[in-house]
Design a protein that fits this description.
5-stranded parallel β-sheet; about 300 residues; alpha/beta; about 45% helix; TIM Barrel
């Protein structure tokens, strides 16, 4: 039974609802160290997905994560809305991710794992990842109901029909099984997503969700994949207004006003405490914590032995 704990590192401020340089610095100086301390205490290895812009500003952070024994992956070049991959052509995606990959590999060497900013991908993304030599992607959250309430909602409707188990993707459709070289490792979800945001918004419901997902894993062999952000592990001071990022009223209401308000709950050390509860429970029930690249090797060994 395998558990993949993943971390998305970016400059986004939860309280300001926008990219922010001061937030990025606090993520580098407080958020990431808090997570690394927890992981060292629990003796587990995880995967950190970094944006290229974050690494450009804080190269020491990515090197520290690598030296602590964790996998470093790519989280796109920028988390800006106008660089969302599902809105970019193949050539634009190739340019952005090639640049991000170069920035990250300059600091830590070859990387193999990818997660798209805001989990936004399109029919060109898998082909682009293959071209750049990636081996795993984790940008799909099957049966997660709130995808349509976030940015990129039209394509995220495909989550409702995607496979729950890891699968080699189709070159033109990342939500279907195919013959590409990219192993999709879906983020765990069952109506609600298994992510730090939901954990913080409703610890009680998240506890139930976690138990269900771990039980499913025992029955089916499907790994549990959890996603948290270091910016959840800081608590910025000040009284911030919610920043509006779109003119579309429905998108503003669901993706900015409603979600941003809820996402302010249980930040900082409270988030660390809730995450440790999750880790301890999984360890007590025999789950082995592995990185995305390590799971790729496990997947290949299982399928080679069976085939």
């Amino acid at each position: 039974m395998y558990y993949l704990l993943t971390n998305d590192v970016e400059e986004h401020s939860i309280q300001k609802n926008r990219l922010d340089d001061d937030t990025a610095r606090e993520v580098a100086e407080v958020g990431i160290p808090r997570l690394l301390e927890l992981y060292a205490k629990q003796g587990i290895r995880t995967t950190f997905f970094f944006t290229g812009t974050f690494v450009e500003s804080f190269p020491d952070s990515v090197r520290t994560v690598k030296s602590a024994g964790h996998e470093v992956g790519c989280h796109g070049y920028s988390h800006a809305l106008d660089r969302a991959l599902d809105e970019l052509s193949y050539s634009e995606q190739l340019r952005d991710i090639r640049q991000a990959k170069a920035v990250i590999e300059k600091e830590v060497g070859e990387i193999q794992s990818f997660r798209a900013p805001a989990l936004r991908i399109n029919s060109d993304t898998i082909k682009m990842l293959e071209k750049l030599g990636f081996k795993t992607d984790s940008s799909v959250a099957p049966q997660r109901f709130d995808g349509p309430l976030s940015f990129g909602s039209k394509r995220k409707l495909n989550w409702l029909f995607a496979k729950r188990k890891p699968y080699l993707t189709d070159c033109r459709n990342p939500y279907k099984q195919g013959k590409s070289n990219i192993l999709e490792i879906p983020i765990s979800a069952f109506l609600f997503p298994h992510i730090g945001t939901f954990m913080r918004i409703s610890p009680a419901l998240d506890k139930i969700l976690s138990r269900m997902l771990l039980f499913e894993s025992v029955l089916t062999g499907k790994p549990v994949v959890f996603d948290i952000h270091p910016n959840e592990c800081i608590c910025e001071s000040g009284d911030f207004n919610i920043n509006r990022r779109t003119r579309n009223f429905l998108s503003y209401f669901f993706a900015d006003l409603l979600r941003s308000g809820l996402k302010r709950r249980n930040l900082g050390k409270k988030a660390i405490g809730l995450l440790e509860r999750e880790v301890v429970y999984a360890k007590q029930h025999g789950f082995q914590f592995v990185t995305c690249s390590e799971f790729r090797e496990i997947y290949e060994n299982i399928h080679n032995n069976n085939g």
